[in-house]
Each structure stands twice: as C-alpha cells, then as structure tokens.
Specification:
Elements: H1 5-13, H2 24-50, H3 62-71, H4 83-93, H5 107-129
Length: about 130
Amino acid sequence: MPGTTAGFILKVGCQVEKLQLAARERIEKALSLYLIVAGRVMHLMRLGRTCPGLPADLIFDPLEWKSAYRLNDQPLPPETPSLNDVLRQIAQLGGFLGRKGDGNPGAKSIWIGLGRIQDCLYGIQLARELGELA
C-alpha cells in the first residue's frame, strides 16, 4: 500500500504511525476505521473525476453539501448542485484554491474539507441536543 493514495491518506491524513498502539487488536480496530475514511476519500476523488455531473444528493446528505457552501460563505444553489461543484466546495475548505489551471482536488484537500464538514455537523447535532436548534 505504500506509494498509493490510500497509503498516503492513512499515513499523512489519518496519521496511523503516530497511534503507537501496542496491542494487535487495537491496531486492527484503528486500521479498520481509517480504511473506511481512506476509502471514502478515494471514492469521492474518483467519482468527482469520472462522474462530475452526478447530483450531489446521491453521494452527500443535504446537510453535508449545504454546510460546505455556507462554510465557504457561498449562497446555497436553488437546485441540488453537481458532485463536482460540492467536491470543489469541500476541497476549498481543505485548502484547494480552484484556480483555472489547478485541475481536480486531491485527497489531502478533500479529507481536510470533510473533517471540517464533520465538525460542523457535530456542532449542529450538539446544538439540537441542547435544544438550541429546531
């Protein structure tokens, strides 16, 4: 796996080397979880390149893609945006600049952006539990 996108995501994004888990069982559990994360990032990256016109709601929960737009201070589109549009919004949260010659977002900007989206969703969930949101 070293040298692959999944290996890069596990090593740099998930920082599995820093876990320093002694028990085999703990290592296996951690890797199982991180492989799901790496798989989602790779899947999104591949879909964004091969099927950019798919409606975003086939892949993302509406709250996920709407959060991506609002965290970027962008107005919500009147209709469900394409997968490519949402991936670019997410990647911008992870540092992707999206200039004309930048090409497609990479794994690093996607996983950082997804992390920011998840933090936002946890905040919304917590506010709902505390009765602060309807």
